Structures are given as C-alpha cells and as structure tokens.
Amino acid sequence: MYEHSNTQIELSGVYTAYMGAEYPVIRDLSLEINRGDFVIVGGPNGAGKTTLLETINGMLHITHGSVKIFGMDVSTKGIEIRKKTGYVIQSFAFDPLTPFTVKNVVMIGRYGLLGCFNKPREEDYKAVEESIKMLGLEDMADKPIGTLSGGQQQKVLIAQNLAKKPDILLLDEPFSNLDLCTREFVSDVLNDISSKGCTVIMVSHAFDALPDKDLRIVVMDDGSLKLNETCHGSKVENIIRNMSAVT
Ligand SMILES: Nc1ncnc2c1ncn2[C@@H]1O[C@H](COP(=O)(O)OP(=O)(O)OP(=O)(O)O)[C@@H](O)[C@H]1O
C-alpha cells in the first residue's frame, strides 16, 4: 500500500497521444495532486479534459515525460494503479434491454480486486450494499439497469466505482444527466469520500453544486494547463467564465 507520500499523482512534462494520431493531445503538462484533494477540471470542449483523466488512468500512450500515481509509473504499472482508481466515464447509457440488475452492475466494480472467475465474497457483497446505500439506490437495487433513467444510471456507475473503494476517483462530467437536487446529493457523497482521503478529480461544465469548501481548480485549453489553483467551490464558476472570456 502506498502511504509514504502526500503527493499521489505526479505528471511531469507529459505529452500524450491517441493511437494513430499524428500529434499529441496533451502537451507539456506538469501537475501534482495530493491525497484527498478535490479537483475540478474545467475548460472548453476539446480542451483535453477527458484526455487528462485517461492519461492519469494509464489508458493512453505517453510520448514524453512521466506520469506517476502512488509513486508508480503508469506506463508499466497501469493494472496495479487501476485496481485502486475508479473511473466514471462520460455519458454512458445502458441498452434498455440490458438484463443485469443494479446490484449486478455495482458488483462489477469489485471484479478488478476479486478476479473475473471468482465468486464474490462477503466483503464484496458488503461493499456493494454500502455503495448502493451511499447513492440512495436501495429501492432500485434489484431492477434491471436498462429500465432506469439516465440520471439513475449515472448514480449506479458512481456506486460501481465506489464499491471498488478507490484511493482515486476520476469522474467525467458526472453531473451531465442530473437535476440540481441530485447534483447536490452526489456532490455531498464525493465531498464525504474526499474528506476521508479519496482523491476526487472531476471534469465538469456544471459548477452550481460544488462542495462548500476550498477545491483545486485545473483549467485546460488546447491540451495545455491554463490554471492550477485553489479556490472556494462557490468561486469556480466565475473563474471558469472569466477564463473563457479571455481565451
Ligand atoms: N479517440 C481519440 N482519437 C483521436 N483523437 C481524440 C480521441 N478522443 C479525443 N480526441 C481529440 O483530443 C482532443 C481533446 O479531446 P477531449 O475529449 O479530451 O476533450 P474534452 O476537453 O474532454 O472535451 P469535452 O468538453 O467536449 O468533453 C480533441 O481534439 C479530440 O478530437
């Protein structure tokens, strides 16, 4: 277990490219993120926000520089790193006929730790139950996932990643399908896990339900880091707006 340093994510002079692409999307990016930080990643469409999450999660080719997570190089220890990292991808929708229940889908979050061919243990069922409860999904736990609304499915995907009990949680526009009340609810859940030491890195275009505390704000534009500072959750929207006016 990586316990010896407060810096959990270190990117130094990183360039990352998609397979077959001529030019890197992320260019010369250096960034350090500490354990338990709550980071909001903003910036215009196409700025490289998703690419940043995929770089941290070791899913892309790093052409220059280095990415270290928990002190390990993401290029060689990606599998180990991803066991401790949750990633809620952008706008995923299940087919309406998907037969798996909410519980089944949340259990998938345990399989990285459990191994694909092993039967869930008591602790796996317990983690699933806890995550379902955290996201307030108890009433729909036995329903087929495809019968849920887009916002409810989004909450299930967050629960799936929480069942992993991650040290880092990456979220790509988790608020996109959620009404204001649900955004506030999910924001409280994320704030709670971050206060307990999980590092939360969230790409978002919605800033009206952010935690009432100091957050890290990282703004990307054209594959580069434009801003990296700490500010109160209530100030994030203004900062992003002002930056958009400048760029
Ligand atoms: N699979 C891919 N292959 C090649 N290029 C890609 C791929 N995915 C994204 N890109 C390119 O990388 C750049 C950054 O995309 P990215 O998805 O990271 O932006 P973003 O800031 O998350 O945008 P949005 O706010 O619209 O979701 C874009 O120019 C995009 O065309």
TrEMBL record:
The keyword Cytoplasm does not apply. Keywords: ATP-binding, Nucleotide-binding, Transport. InterPro entries: AAA+_ATPase (IPR003593), ABC_transporter-like_ATP-bd (IPR003439), ABC_transporter-like_CS (IPR017871), Metal_Ion_Import_ABC (IPR050153), P-loop_NTPase (IPR027417). GO terms for molecular function: ATP binding; ATP hydrolysis activity. Residues 9-247 form the ABC transporter domain. This is ATP-binding cassette domain-containing protein.
